[in-house]
Amino acid sequence: MNLPIKKAIILAGGEGTRLHPLTYNIPKSLIPMQGKTLTELVLDILKKYGVKDIILSVGYLYKKMQDHFGDGKKFGFNISYCIEKKPKGTAGPLILLPKFKETFLMMNGDNLFDVDFEKFYKTHKDNKAIATIALTEVEDTSQYGVVKLEGQKIIGFVEKPKPAQAPSHFISSGYYILEPEVFNLVKNKEFAMLEKDVFPQLAEQGKLFGYYDPGQWFDTGTPERYEQANKEWQLK
User: Which is the CATH superfamily of the domain at 7-232?
Assistant: First the structure.
């Protein structure tokens, strides 16, 4: 099952303060899960679809990430690093890396999502999108940013609405398919967030789309969610 996409950026630079004391001495991306590290579980998802070239966007205790993953060969990948010694935001790699020439993936390294990348990719291309966000569905919208949709087109976001006031129950899974044009949206910026600086611009331009997938999804950002993912995560 090989995607035409071969390159993925994994956002793995977070300190994971909500997971203290687990992350006092290791980056969040190296926390143990199911006998591996969290990042290795994300890599397992990409391996299933033949994605080989990985850029780890790292910051906090980044040398430990480099020591663990090296050039990626022992994990079956080609791994390189985008190092943020000073935090640049979730769009940091788009500021620091040279502009790509091809469609690529970007994902939050602390989210696990059993997404069907083939359907995700087809949706992205069929819509001629600049960016497509893989969406998951939640009951309690008050913990997340919720998307406003017109069909598959994302027209806006509502931050942490009460369920009764939410325009939908769909939220970003933290998994994205992006075109090289996104690099232009953060040009000359020192700090940029995908959620505030990139996606709202694309929504205004009518170039941002959503792809809903019912696959298992976990956000591991709190001790409770981490424990649940550790027990229940299963890649089909």
Answer: Spore Coat Polysaccharide Biosynthesis Protein SpsA; Chain A (3.90.550.10)
Task: With beta carbons less than 8 A apart as the criterion, state whether 113 and 217 touch.
Answer: yes
Q: What is the pLDDT of residues 24-48, one digit of tens each?
A: 888 999 999 999 999 999 999 999 9
**108 contacts 11 by C-beta, under 8 angstroms:** yes
Given a contact cutoff of 8 angstroms between Cβ atoms, the answer to whether 175 and 115 are in contact is yes
Active site residues: 160
Q: Does the reported pTM lie above 0.85?
A: yes
Residue 17: phi and psi, rounded to 5, are: -60, -30
Separation between Cα atoms, residue 149 and residue 170, nearest integer Å: 9
SS (H, E, C) 8-76: EEEECCCCCHHHCCCCCCCCHHHCEECCEEHHHHHHHHHHCCCCCEEEEEECCCHHHHHHHHCCCHHHC
Cα 122 to Cα 21: distance, rounded to the nearest angstrom: 42
* Torsion sign, CA atoms 158, 164, 167, 168: positive
Q: Tens digits of per-residue pLDDT, 67-98? A: 999 999 999 999 999 999 999 999 999 999 99
pLDDT tens string 93-134: 999 999 999 999 999 999 999 999 999 999 999 999 999 999
Q: Which residue has the tokens 């009518």?
A: 206
Domain boundaries, the chain: 7-232
